[in-house]
Amino acid sequence: MKPVNCVIxxxxxxxxxxxxxxxxxxxxxxxxGSFSNPLECIGLLQRNDIDLVxxxxxxxLVNGIDFFKTIANPPLCIFITDHPAHAPEAFDVNxxxxxxxxxxxxxxxKAVNRVYAFLQIKTKALDYDMQxxxxxxxxKEGSSINKLYVHDIIYLEAISNYTRIVTAFKKYIxxxxxxxxxxxxxxxxxxxxxxxxxxAIDKIQRIENREVYAEDAVLPVGKTYRHEVNTLxxxxxxxxx
Length: 241
What we know:
Elements: E1 4-9, H1 13-23, E2 29-35, H2 42-46, E3 52-56, H3 64-69, E4 76-81, H4 87-92, E5 97-100, H5 105-124, E6 128-132, E7 136-141, E8 144-149, E9 153-159, E10 162-167, E11 171-174, H6 178-184, E12 190-194, E13 197-200, E14 204-208, E15 211-214, E16 217-220, H7 226-234
Parallel strand pairs: 1-2, 1-3, 3-4, 4-5
Antiparallel strand pairs: 6-7, 7-8, 9-10, 9-13, 10-11, 12-13, 14-15, 15-16
């Protein structure tokens, strides 16, 4: 993969330094600049030289989300903030992820991997086709054809307008967004638990501390999906509560 140019925009110096430190672990991410407010990087963004922005939301001069909405051809964006309440608004502008301060190495790694997966999708898009049948999904990528069984799916992960299908054996990328894919899959097999996740109901082992445990995965339960998940639990065996 060619180098991915990124910038950091955060009015707090210590928070910028944390992100800069995390970035040193990824050779394919090239830091083009670190700024204390969005107005300082307008020139870079207008030249379309930047592929990814790590953007704080609450800043003195301008709100990060409001600024991002003004960019004509916006790069990928990972919003970073102290306030979880802004997550829905961030995803409404197609942020690829949303990190809460202080940003841990593990959570940063997960966000960066989402960027990597998204960029892989874009390179394969022209040679991609998918067909969903009753019990199987056939995914064609160039000359490669993969067939997976719906009952092998553990969870689905939204990555911008695309979806990653995760099984115990392999991860697949589709060009459908999460809602479109769920509409094609068999009814009552999957439940939406988060803006970015849906999980196979029969793979859920337990739910605790607002997290779903499914096979080896631990997935977050979003605030707006808690009622649906709790209702589901009343219908499941007691061992899942």
